[in-house]
Write a structure and sequence with these properties.
Strand order of the largest sheet: 2-1-3-12-11-4-5-10-8-9
Number of strands: 12
Distance between the termini: 21 Å
CATH superfamily of one domain: Isopropylmalate Dehydrogenase
CATH architecture of one domain: 3-Layer(aba) Sandwich
Radius of gyration: 20 Å
Largest sheet: 10 strands, mixed
Bound molecules: 3-isopropylmalic acid, magnesium ion
Low-confidence stretches: none
Number of helices: 11
């Protein structure tokens, strides 16, 4: 029987709660399928690890997970540790060296869930945001000088390379091509950012020439927020820089009903390194330990993971199980306006996996 090795890194806050549920659901889907199974290895990296060891993960951490088929990640973020340390010490310390340059964030209004947009019908909000995940505003270029003096200065330089932009554009056009609408929106800010964003636009035009069957348009990021709210049905696949897509994907998740549902895949499309799957929501310390975190974002991320390892049938089955559960309002967690608990939702998804129509 095929065995997939999965590195589980729950991280901080509700990450530990939702990843545990994610593993339960993955086991259930493997059992239901019968042709593969999972081997989970657990890594206790994150804020608590930092408090003991002064770093978010061990020096050889990446080597410990390099050979795994995929990584299931919870979240990094701890109230006692500055956010830039938790981010750069764990999540980016995995994403960037493992060259997970394509961050894929699907957004849909799932059955039973109400979008805050008046009148939006589910089919009218069905997007995939492709976030450049290796450079741009998150390149880490910059510095700070004269701290504590009135002359203090700091820079954060957004760095874009031609190969980096070309590969994310190609990935986005290919993804758009694989979807029924075959439409890509390239988000930019080349009116104000007159160097890198102008190169970004030029490369989009060049790459588009190789995808004649894909229609595409260009949107300034500020106008894009308006279009997402006012004309969601005109969008399908979206590509944006690291920071622009970070912001737009939070808006997208909110428009689809809750940040608690939104999944993400950090892909190394060439498969030289493992890819990493995680819910978007973050560590949410305010609700930690209460048993009310929404595990759907992790389950949907698990669907993306199944797809990535090639288990398409199981991926489809898990997505249908998730949708059957969201369709039942009694199984909504508080972020969706309900009173269900993390464990109720998980048990219902496991039941749906084993159910008659699964
Ligand atoms: C995301 C998150 C992260 C980001 C945070 C937790 C640093 O918001 O995945 O969208 O900004 O990349
Ligand atoms: Mg974000």
């Amino acid at each position: 029987m095929k065995t997939y090795s999965i590195a589980a890194i729950p991280g901080d806050g509700i990450g530990t709660e939702v990843v545990a549920c994610g593993l339960q659901v993955l086991d259930a889907i493997a059992k239901r399928d019968g042709s593969f199974k999972f081997k989970f290895d657990h890594f206790d990296w994150g804020g608590e690890y930092y408090k003991k060891h002064g770093r978010m993960m061990p020096v050889d951490g990446r080597d410990q997970i390099r050979k795994h088929d995929a990584i299931l990640f919870g979240s990094a973020g701890h109230p006692e540790i500055p956010d830039h340390i938790t981010l750069w010490g764990l999540r980016l310390a995995i994403c960037q060296p493992f060259d997970q340059y394509a961050n894929v964030r699907p957004t849909r209004v799932l059955p039973g869930i109400t979008s805050p947009l008046r009148n939006v019908k589910d089919k009218e909000l069905d997007w995939v945001i492709v976030r450049e995940n290796s450079e741009g505003e998150y390149a880490g270029v910059g510095g700070r000088v004269h701290q504590g003096s009135p002359l203090e200065a700091a820079t954060d330089v957004a760095m874009f390379t031609r190969p980096g932009v070309e590969r994310i554009m190609r990935f986005a056009f290919r993804l758009a091509q694989s979807r029924p609408r075959k439409h890509l929106t390239v988000v930019t800010k080349s009116n104000a950012q007159r160097h890198a964003m102008v190169m970004w636009d030029e490369i989009a035009t060049e790459v588009a020439a190789g995808f004649k069957d894909v229609t595409w348009d260009k949107m300034l990021v500020d106008a894009m927020t308006v279009r997402m709210v006012m004309r969601p049905e005109t969008l399908d696949t979206i590509v944006a820089t690291n920071l622009h897509a970070d912001i737009l994907s939070d808006l997208a998740a909110a428009l689809a009903g809750s940040l608690g549902i939104a999944p993400t895949a950090n892909l190394n499309p060439e498969r030289k390194f493992p890819s990493m799957f995680e819910p978007i929501h973050g560590s949410a310390f305010d609700i930690m330990g209460k048993g009310v975190a929404n595990p759907i974002g992790t389950f949907w991320s698990a669907v993306m993971m199944l797809d990535h390892v090639g288990e398409r049938v199981a991926a489809g089955r898990l997505m249908r199980a998730i949708e059957r559960v969201t369709a039942d309002k009694r199984l909504h967690t508080p972020d969706l306006g309900g009173t269900a608990r993390t464990a109720d939702v998980t048990a219902a998804v496991v039941d749906a996996i084993h159910g008659a129509n699964a």
